[in-house]
Design a protein that fits this description.
97 residues, mainly alpha
Length: 97
C-alpha cells in the first residue's frame, strides 16, 4: 500500500468516525446529567481533533501528488524507464513462482 493510498484510507476512516460521533452527539442532545455532559464535551474535543487531522492528511496527500506530478513532468523519460524497470522486476519475481 502506497502512502497515498494509506492516507486516503485513513481519511475515509476518520470521516466515518466523525460521522458516527456527530450522530452520537445528536442522539444524546436531550440527555441531562453530569456524566453525559462530560462525555459529550470529550467527544466534541476528539471530533474537532479528528477533523483537523483529516484536513491535514488531505493537504499532505494533495502536496505529495503535486510533487510527484512535477517530478514526472520534469523527467518524463527517466520516469518511464523507472516504471519499466519496476514492472520488469515484478514480472521476473512473479514468474519465478
Amino acid at each position: 500500500m502506497t502512502p497515498h493510498e494509506a492516507n486516503q484510507r485513513l481519511t475515509g476512516d476518520l470521516k466515518l468516525v466523525m460521522r458516527d460521533a456527530e450522530e452520537l452527539l445528536k442522539a444524546t442532545a436531550g440527555e441531562a446529567g453530569e456524566k453525559v455532559k462530560e462525555v459529550r464535551s470529550r467527544l466534541t474535543t476528539a471530533l474537532d481533533s479528528a477533523k483537523a487531522t483529516c484536513e491535514h492528511l488531505q493537504d499532505k496527500t494533495v502536496e505529495a501528488a503535486k510533487a510527484t506530478d512535477h517530478v514526472i513532468r520534469e523527467h518524463p523519460y527517466e520516469s518511464i524507464g523507472i516504471a519499466f524497470g519496476v514492472g520488469l522486476l515484478i514480472g521476473v519475481l512473479v514468474g519465478r513462482r
